Amino acid sequence: RCRPDAFYAAVEVLDNPSLEGSCLLIGGSSTRAVVATASYEARRFGIHSAMPMNKALRLCPHAKILQPRMERYSEVSANVMEILKRFSSSVQQLSIDEAFLDMSGTKRLFGIPRQAGMLLKNTVKQETGLNISVGIGPSHFIAKMASDYDKPDGLCRVSKGKELAFIDAVGLKKLWGVGKVTQALLAKHHITSTVELRSYSEKSLRSLFGQSMGNYLYLASRGIDPGIFKEQSKTHSISTEKTFEDDVSSLAILEQTLLVMAHEVMFRALDEKQVGRTIGLKIRLADFTTYTLQTTPSSTIYSAEQIYHFGKTLLLQKWKEGTFIRLIGLGLYQLYDGQQPLQQELFEDPYKKKRALEEVALRLHKQGKQLIKATSLEVHKEEKPD
Predict the structure, then answer these.
(1) Is the confidence at residue 347, as pLDDT, over 60?
(2) Predicted TM-score of the model (pTM)
(3) Within 13 Å and on the Cβ side, how many CA atoms surround 141?
(4) Sign of the CA dihedral with 52 first, then 149, 243, and 215 last
């Protein structure tokens, strides 16, 4: 699993080296804004993604707020993904800054796993200027935790057969998917370590925590992949997902997260010259119950604004006051070639016009030009999709 470190902030430093060493907060500046990404300098103050911006500024008053530039992040992401594809014919991109590679059978080309991982890191650094953390393991689950274990700029390999030792070294507090809410539930049953967790049978865990969470805890504590990373073919979807560091119940934070994700999905679609017919939303609750929802409007999806509105509509079908969410995903599905020029209906459908403007923004950025004014990520509540 490969992931650039503090990706949005790293791109900002790459484009403006004078920002290096600064506490950077990528996100909006409104009272409802949330942090999309924080630089590692800012994280030392306890700031993390999805934190309300006003709280982040209280923790670090001297932090610099930078508006997200999704078109630029998408461009850099595409460059990184192209490099990854040189190392593997099977690259599963989960989001703008996260991908899994199946490196099976590449030893003669790139060496043993650790050598291949270092070569990959060095290649990305030399060609893009970005540091990435690489986790190597026998499954998606282990590889993900390995990449988080030694970041930033890390390289961690977990050999087959060493999964349990690694899980115990990581510990219950850093076991992926076990947040503060779950830790509190476990503590009520005097479970404070992965060793203690493994002493419970699958049936007992289901009885205590419900079927979804019980299954997850049983498998995760044994280093067995719970199967949470499903393969999605690029030809069928462009999607992204976000796992919150702390489970989130605030609708404002969820909306802001959806807004950033909608722009990420749209700029990836623009870059790949795709449009779609269906919007999909995935949410995973604190108890690991997972919902996958989809909607297919009567017309094609052309803009980030549409993706956001339909995604929010799907979210509100499951969200209610007091609902804690640990993961949210947003995707564009039923893709087809969007290279044909938008002609007759261009100014009849406002969303086609918005897409045309987004295409211009992406094209100008790739040509190295500065837009006079960045498009606002704020969406007016009264504007609704057809």
Answers:
(1) no
(2) 0.71
(3) 23
(4) negative
